[in-house]
Inverse folding.
C-alpha cells in the first residue's frame, strides 16, 4: 500500500459520515422540511450503534441500532413539526440539544470501552486489483451503502413518481395538497429517512471511524452535513463531490499536523469549519446556482385547511 | 382516531401564559419517569432537583451566578428570534467576549483604575459583537445562512481559546496548566455582599429593562416585530431587513460577550480552556421559555439556572449522572414548542365517524 492509496482511503473514511448524514437531509429538505437536528440524530446513532455492538459483539446489530436511534429522534421531530405545526428551526435545535444530552446519558457507562470494529467486506478478485482494488472494492458495508444512496436518491428523486411527489410537496405544498397528495405523510416519511441516514452516519463514526464512544464525538459533523446540502444545491451528485472535498479537508489537517510545520494544532483543527463557511459563502452568493434547485417551501409549516 | 389542528381566529392570550407552565409541568412529569426508570424515588429526586436549590443561601446564590449569563444571552437571542434572525452561535460570541475582555487583565496587568472593569466589559461586548458581525456580514452580503455560519464560528472560537490559553497567554508560573494568570482583585467583578453573586446579575436586570423598553416603546422594536412577523409588510413600510440583521446580531453578540467576560472575571477569575458549560446553547431554551420577551427571559433564566444547580446536587446526593440536566433542558424545549401550538391552534380529536363526516363535507 503506497502513500497516495493510504491518503485516499482515509479521505473516504472521513467523508462517509458526512455523505450519509447529508444525503438523508437532502431528501428531507427536498420535501420542504428543514431539520436542524442532524447533529443530534447522528450522535444518537453513534451511541446506540456503539452500545448495541458492544453488548452483542455484532457490528451489524450496532448499525441497526444506530438507524433506530436516528429514526426515533426524527419521529419526535416529525410529530412536532408536522402534526403540531411547530417552528422547524427551533424544533431542530431542540432535537440537537436533546440528542447531545441523551447520548451523553446513555453512553456514560460505555466511555473508554473497546469498541467492535466494522470489518471490511472485500469483494473477491476485484479487491486484489493493484491500487484501485482496495479503494473501490475493499470497503465496509456502510461505504458501499453511502455510494448506493447517492445513485439511489438521484434515481428516485428525478426518475420516479415518488420523487416527483416528494419534490412537488417541497416546492408547493398547497398545490400538492390540492392534487390530493398527503403532504404531511410524505414529509413524515422523508423526515424518518433523514433520521435513518443520520443514524447510519453516527454508527459509522462509532463502529468504523473510531470504534469507541466519546461524548460529542460527532464534533459538528451534523452541521457540516447541513452546510453540504446547501453547497450541493440539493443535487445528490454534487453532494457526493462536496462530501469528499470536505472529507479531504478534515484529513488534511491531520496530515499537516503529522508533518509538523509548526502550525498550532488548533488552527488545523478549525480548518473544516472555516472551509465550511467559505463554501457556504461561495455557493449562497451565486443566485443562479441556488435559486434553481432550492425547495420553494423549505422550512414552512403546512396545516391543511378544512 | 386522528389529531387535527384547527386555527384559532386570534391567538390565545391565556395559552400564551399557560404554555410555558404546562411545558414545565410536563417536563417535571417526564423527569419523574426518568428517575423512576433509574430506580430512584421520583419524589425525592424531583425535590433535590428543583426545590432544594432554593432552600439554602449557598445554592440560591449559585442560581443567580448561573442565571446572570443565561439572562444576558437569552435576552439578546429573544430579540434576534423575534426578528427571525437565527443566531445560534452565542456560545462562540461568549468565548470571543471572554478572550477580548481578558486583554486588559492579561496584557495590561498593572493598570489599576476605576475604569479597568469598564474597559473589560466594553471590550468583552466589542469582542462578542464583532464576532457576531461575521455571520451578519455574510448573511447580508452573500446571503449565507446565519444558522450555519454562526454555529461553525462556535467551534472556531473554542479552538482559538484553547490555543490562547495553551500558547501566548499561558501563565508562565502555572506549572504548565492550560490557563492564564489569575486576575487581581480590581480586575474581578465585585460581589454583592460576601457571597459569590457578582454584578453580572445586576447587568442582566438592567439589560432586561432596556430591551423591554426597546421592544415595546421604540420604532426599532416595532421594526423588529414587523420584519419578524411579515417581511413583506416590513418592506412596504420601508424597513430595511439588512439593518435589522445587523442590529440583532450585534446586540445579541455584544450581550453574549458581556456574559463571557462576566464568567472569566466572575466565577473562574482567569481564562481557562472552557469558559462556559454551554450557556450559549442553553440560552436558546431560555429565550423560548421566556416567550421571546425580555421579562419572560428573566424568569426563564432563573428556571434553567436551577436545573444546572439541581443537576449538580442530584449528582452528589443521588449519584444521578450530570448529563441528566442537559436531557431535561432538551425535553423542556420540546414541550415548550409543542405547547406553543396551543396558542395558535385548537387540537381536535377526530374519531372515525367524525372523520367520515369531515371527509363527506
Amino acid at each position: 500500500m503506497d502513500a497516495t492509496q493510504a491518503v485516499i482511503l482515509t479521505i473516504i473514511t472521513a467523508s462517509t459520515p458526512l455523505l450519509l448524514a447529508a444525503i438523508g437531509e437532502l431528501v428531507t429538505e427536498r420535501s420542504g422540511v428543514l431539520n436542524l437536528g442532524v447533529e443530534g440524530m447522528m450522535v444518537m446513532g453513534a451511541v446506540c450503534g456503539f452500545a448495541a455492538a458492544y453488548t452483542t459483539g455484532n457490528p451489524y446489530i450496532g448499525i441497526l441500532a444506530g438507524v433506530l436511534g436516528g429514526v426515533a429522534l426524527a419521529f419526535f421531530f416529525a410529530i412536532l413539526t408536522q402534526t403540531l405545526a411547530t417552528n422547524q428551526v427551533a424544533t431542530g435545535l431542540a432535537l440537537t440539544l436533546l440528542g447531545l444530552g441523551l447520548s451523553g446519558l446513555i453512553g456514560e457507562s460505555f466511555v473508554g470501552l473497546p469498541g467492535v470494529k466494522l470489518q471490511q467486506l472485500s469483494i473477491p478478485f476485484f479487491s486484489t486489483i493493484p491500487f484501485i482494488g482496495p479503494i473501490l472494492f475493499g470497503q465496509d458495508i456502510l461505504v458501499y451503502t453511502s455510494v448506493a444512496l447517492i445513485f439511489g436518491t438521484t434515481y428516485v428523486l428525478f426518475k420516479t413518481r415518488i420523487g416527483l411527489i416528494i419534490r412537488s410537496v417541497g416546492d408547493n405544498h398547497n398545490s400538492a395538497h390540492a392534487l390530493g397528495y398527503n403532504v404531511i405523510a410524505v414529509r413524515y416519511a422523508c423526515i424518518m429517512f433523514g433520521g435513518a441516514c443520520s443514524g447510519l452516519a453516527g454508527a459509522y463514526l462509532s463502529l468504523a471511524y473510531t470504534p469507541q464512544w466519546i461524548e460529542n464525538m460527532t464534533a459538528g459533523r451534523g452541521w457540516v452535513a447541513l452546510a453540504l446540502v446547501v453547497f450541493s444545491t440539493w443535487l445528490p451528485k454534487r453532494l457526493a463531490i462536496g462530501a469528499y472535498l470536505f472529507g479531504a479537508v478534515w484529513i488534511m489537517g491531520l496530515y499537516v499536523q503529522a508533518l509538523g510545520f509548526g502550525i498550532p494544532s488548533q488552527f488545523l483543527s478549525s480548518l473544516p469549519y472555516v472551509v465550511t463557511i467559505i463554501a457556504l459563502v461561495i455557493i449562497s452568493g451565486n443566485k443562479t446556482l441556488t435559486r434553481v434547485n432550492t425547495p420553494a417551501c423549505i422550512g414552512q409549516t403546512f396545516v391543511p385547511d378544512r | 382516531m386522528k389529531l387535527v389542528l384547527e386555527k384559532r381566529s386570534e391567538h390565545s392570550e391565556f395559552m400564551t401564559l399557560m404554555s410555558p407552565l404546562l411545558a414545565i409541568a410536563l417536563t417535571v412529569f417526564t423527569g419523574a419517569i426518568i428517575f423512576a426508570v433509574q430506580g430512584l424515588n421520583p419524589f425525592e429526586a424531583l425535590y433535590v432537583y428543583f426545590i432544594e436549590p432554593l432552600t439554602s443561601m449557598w445554592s440560591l446564590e449559585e442560581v443567580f451566578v448561573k442565571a446572570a449569563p443565561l439572562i444576558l444571552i437569552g435576552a439578546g437571542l429573544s430579540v434576534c428570534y423575534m426578528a427571525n434572525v437565527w443566531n445560534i452561535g452565542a456560545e462562540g460570541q461568549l468565548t470571543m467576549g471572554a478572550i477580548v475582555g481578558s486583554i486588559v487583565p492579561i496584557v495590561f496587568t498593572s493598570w489599576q483604575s476605576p475604569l479597568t472593569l469598564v474597559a473589560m466589559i466594553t471590550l468583552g461586548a466589542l469582542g462578542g459583537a464583532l464576532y457576531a458581525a461575521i455571520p451578519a456580514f455574510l448573511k447580508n452580503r452573500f446571503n449565507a445562512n446565519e444558522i450555519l455560519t454562526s454555529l461553525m464560528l462556535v467551534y472556531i472560537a473554542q479552538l482559538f481559546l484553547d490555543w490562547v490559553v495553551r500558547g501566548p497567554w499561558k501563565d508562565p508560573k502555572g506549572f504548565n496548566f492550560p490557563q492564564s494568570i489569575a486576575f487581581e482583585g480590581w480586575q474581578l467583578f465585585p460581589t454583592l455582599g460576601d457571597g459569590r453573586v457578582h454584578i453580572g446579575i445586576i447587568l442582566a436586570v438592567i439589560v432586561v429593562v432596556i430591551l423591554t423598553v426597546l421592544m415595546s416603546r421604540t420604532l426599532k422594536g416595532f421594526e423588529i416585530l414587523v420584519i419578524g412577523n411579515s417581511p413583506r409588510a416590513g418592506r412596504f413600510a420601508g424597513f430595511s431587513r439588512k439593518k435589522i440583521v445587523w442590529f440583532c446580531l450585534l446586540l445579541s453578540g455584544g450581550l453574549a460577550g458581556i456574559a463571557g467576560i462576566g464568567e472569566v472575571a466572575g466565577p473562574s477569575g482567569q481564562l481557562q480552556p472552557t469558559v462556559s458549560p454551554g450557556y450559549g446553547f442553553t440560552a436558546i431554551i431560555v429565550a423560548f421559555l421566556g416567550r421571546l420577551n425580555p421579562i419572560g427571559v428573566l424568569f426563564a433564566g432563573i428556571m434553567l439556572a436551577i436545573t444546572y444547580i439541581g443537576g449538580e446536587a442530584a449528582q452528589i446526593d443521588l449519584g444521578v449522572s450530570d448529563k441528566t440536566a442537559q436531557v431535561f433542558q432538551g425535553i423542556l424545549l420540546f414541550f415548550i414548542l409543542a405547547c406553543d401550538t396551543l396558542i395558535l391552534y385548537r387540537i381536535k380529536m377526530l374519531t372515525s365517524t367524525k372523520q367520515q363526516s369531515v371527509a363527506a363535507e
User: Anything to note?
Assistant: Chain B has 15 helices and two strands.
